[in-house]
Design brief:
Elements lengths: L21 H15 L5 H7 L15 E6 L8 H18 L12 E4 L2 H10 L11 H10 L1 H4 L5 H6 L1 H10 L11 E7 L4 E6 H6 L7 H8 L9 E4 L6 E5 L2 H4 L3 H10 L13 E6 L12 H24 L3 H4 E4 L17 H13 L1 E6 L3 E8 H19 L26 H4 L3
Parallel strand pairs: 1-2, 1-7, 2-3, 7-8
Antiparallel strand pairs: 3-4, 3-6, 5-6, 9-10
């Protein structure tokens, strides 16, 4: 190894004819100022190192923006879809871009159950290169097809599987590789009795982990107590799973999404902790558990209880920066104890109730103290978060260091991402 220079290096003395890549130049400047000179704050570096390149301030490489969507909840996904429609409208208004989409302002997305269907609608690439659906169109898709997608028992549903037919028509031959950003969509594999996470990162690494988006959506929303499990294979036929609802294992996928981003250094090279994240987590309303009389109801209890546990854990992980870097949108429980949700018989009824939920005061998890109702409404929180997303988008236009480096690699025998569980290996055939 070559000896390190003992005197300060003035990068301005480099011969002008020597072409230096801008990214290499910036990285060398960081190493020079932070390690050779031992400076840890921008003020000392500026005052004490003449002619040296200014060291980027904390978060100069930006924050990774993550969207997470729960399973069905009391509103069958309408609350999350309505939240995204409001957020998209805010982004278009604040950015001045009438064509802005949710996918354009997030770097990764995770969804479970109907939340996984929403993620697929918003992040799958269409023939024109843009996402198949805007948030407004995804909301209409859920409301127009609520009866086909809803959890309803019956032998006829098991045979005809109207939801799966709808999903095949919607996504065609699109696979996980056809998403515009990294996505994570969980289910539970009955073969290995373990969670299975569909991941774009894994699909790009190996064909054995690439699945059709219609199958992915059917798998994450297959209620085991009603329509039964969904048997499926990867595109190349090598990996087989028998899947049920992602809510069984991971109704709130926020923790899984954060873990994936922090460990996926290929696509998020400078993301080292929760302070480097902007996370939006969307719930779908809390069910009335006083009226639970079916196996499906007990599945919802388990799923929504797990969602609250994940919310508490994530809030604790974010600590002091949870107020700005982590936003959770969920009903505050008042409507779950009323007759409003129970009396909803049409999609229009659920739309009205979801709008009321968005107008409620937001509920935040407090470290070791449960939850508290804050002054801002859910709509206020979405408006503020839209501002943070746009701020990050604008910062990237002038940044040299990349916040994200999306992978478009060809299939490889080795898999380096962190998304897929061990169950994927043991269920290959």
């Amino acid at each position: 190894m070559a000896a390190m220079p003992t005197s300060p290096i003035n990068l301005n003395t480099i011969d002008s004819n020597f072409e230096v890549d801008k990214l290499t130049y910036e990285i060398f400047s960081i190493l020079e100022n932070n390690f050779l000179f031992g400076y840890n704050d921008a003020e000392n570096r500026t005052n004490s190192v003449p002619n040296a390149v200014n060291f980027p301030a904390k978060h100069a490489v930006g924050k990774v923006r993550i969207l997470c969507i729960d399973g069905a909840g009391a509103t069958d996904g309408i609350l999350a879809a309505k939240s995204l429609a409001h957020l998209e409208a805010c982004l278009r208004r604040k950015s001045g871009d009438p064509a802005a989409t949710i996918a354009g302002f997030f770097d990764a997305a995770a969804g479970s159950g109907v939340g996984g269907v929403l993620v697929a609608l918003l992040f799958t690439r269409g023939k024109d290169g843009r996402p198949l659906f805007t948030a407004g169109e995804a909301l209409r898709f859920l409301t127009d097809n609520r009866r086909r997608l809803a959890r309803r028992p019956g032998v006829l549903r098991r045979v005809l599987r109207p939801a799966e037919r709808l999903l095949r028509r919607t996504f065609g031959e699109c696979t996980l590789k056809d998403t515009v950003k990294p996505v994570l969509i969980p289910c539970y594999d009955l073969v290995t009795r373990a969670p299975f996470v569909f991941s774009r990162a894994d699909a790009l690494e190996m064909d054995g982990y690439d699945f059709k988006m219609s199958d992915v959506c059917a798998a994450t929303s297959a209620d085991p107590s009603l329509a039964g499990p969904t048997a499926m294979r990867s595109v190349d036929g090598r990996t087989k799973i028998v899947a049920v609802d992602g809510g069984v294992a991971m109704n709130n996928p926020t923790a899984a999404a954060i873990t994936h981003v922090l460990n996926n250094k290929h696509e998020f090279p400078f993301c080292n902790g929760v302070s480097d994240l902007l996370v939006l987590s969307l719930g779908n309303g809390e069910s009335d558990f006083n009226a639970v009389k079916s196996p499906s109801g007990f599945v919802r209890i388990a799923g929504e209880g797990a969602s609250d546990m994940v919310d508490q854990a994530v809030s604790m992980a974010f600590g002091e920066c949870r107020m700005s870097n982590y936003v959770r949108i969920q009903s505050n429980g008042i409507m779950a104890n009323s007759n409003k949700v129970k009396s909803c018989k049409t999609a229009s009824d659920l739309l009205a109730v979801s709008e009321e939920m968005l107008g409620q005061k937001n509920v935040e998890s407090v470290l070791f103290k449960g939850k508290k109702v804050v002054e801002n409404t859910n709509l206020d929180k979405l408006e503020l978060f839209a501002g943070e997303l746009i701020k990050e988008q604008e910062r990237r236009k002038t940044s040299i260091l990349p916040t994200v480096v999306f992978k478009n690699a060809s299939p490889s025998p080795s898999r380096t991402s962190s998304a897929t569980t061990l169950s994927t290996l043991s269920s290959s055939c």
